[in-house]
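Subject: Protein entry, chain in single-letter code together with its fold tokens

Category: Structural biology, sequence-to-fold work with a learned token vocabulary.

Notation: Tokens come from a learned vocabulary of local backbone shapes, not from coordinates.

Start of record: The labelled sequence and token lines come straight after this line.
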Amino acid sequence: MDSRPRSRAEQRQSTQSRILDAARRLFAEVGYDRATIRAIAAEAQADPGLVMRYFGSKDNLFAQASGFEQEDRVTGTPGQVADQLLAALETKLAQQPTDALAAIRSMFTHPDAAAEVQLAMVSRQRQAAQHLADDDADLRAGLIGAITIGTVIGRHLLQLDGLRDAPPARITALLRHAFHDIACGPTTTAAETSPVHAPGE
């Protein structure tokens, strides 16, 4: 174990990390208005003055705390992209994404939060759309994004029956066909292509 004294820069970085973690938790739990600087400082075991010194304002702190964590870029065939997006959703269902929940809960009372959510979702949607079926690619990516964020809200914020306690792998298994149909386009079955004959023909 490293027992050397920490430098001032290391101490500052540690304090900033504690403040950001505390801010994410409180913004996610109570929303923007009720997560005061004093409450965040107490949660981080830091002085309120340090919060303002490091982040300048509550708005700046919120912008950093609620910024969606960087996700891996999706790539490959539409089917592969669907599987990658399902895996990302499964991770969000297994562990509460506090940064995303902070933005989602706060967006109903704080206009800047809605912009944060929209910016992150649009960026993710545009990147994914490049690898989906060509027709209506933006719409396909938007639908998958809507299903993803709705499932996260239903599990972690609304705690809907069934969804709240279901194993993440079970949820994504049930969504797999939907994700693939949206990403790739539904597969036409033989029954759908067979001509329909009237009785007696």
In short: Residues 188-199 have pLDDT under 50 and may be disordered. DSSP finds ten helices and no strands in the chain.
